[in-house]
């Protein structure tokens, strides 16, 4: 295995925009939820006349759809990802809008379908507002305590934070906004990190995991993780995912 310094330097120098995780191939793995989210969306997009994808990242999920609705829009708040989305989706006629989900710049009842993979924070009132009657919201959310085994290596125990993103609470918030929940599934998926570069890269990409992350601040923890992985022990964590189906009731 390459030296600690080389692995960290490479991870520091590698682009982390968009939601392409292929840089981790051979260095880290994550079990996938059983429902296959992208495959799940294909028939929904093909059947919709209009759709909106929230927090689209670099537009990777939408770009993978073989058929898109006649009117397709995506939102993304982070500038570098907006540029990636425009490059990937603009040629297919997709409207790429820089916006956060709590202030969607669309008229009421604009879309048949709203989707999102790993939204930052579901803005249920906005989702309900832009959906047409009988419109659907289909999304894969990050669930509670996702990757917390890794996060707590750096931040220590976070008992209160572990309860955030509880699907039962999200379901209540959706209903309070006027939506009906028509389906809910959860999964907890094994993650393995095999070298320290993979850890540094994922913490740079998912900046909300350890918001104050820097090599200097957390060098002792990184050294300890590196030593364990060099001894042949991958670092194991678990991602948490929730698949939600909701609809805007007619009338």
Automatic annotation (TrEMBL):
Pfam families: Methyltransf_11 (PF08241). This is Methyltransferase domain-containing protein. GO terms for biological process: methylation. It comes from the Bacteria. The keyword Lyase does not apply. GO terms for molecular function: methyltransferase activity. Residues 52-138 form the Methyltransferase type domain. Keywords: Methyltransferase, Transferase. InterPro entries: 23S_rRNA_MeTrnsfrase_RlmA, Methyltransf_11, SAM-dependent_MTases_sf. It comes from Kineosporia mesophila.
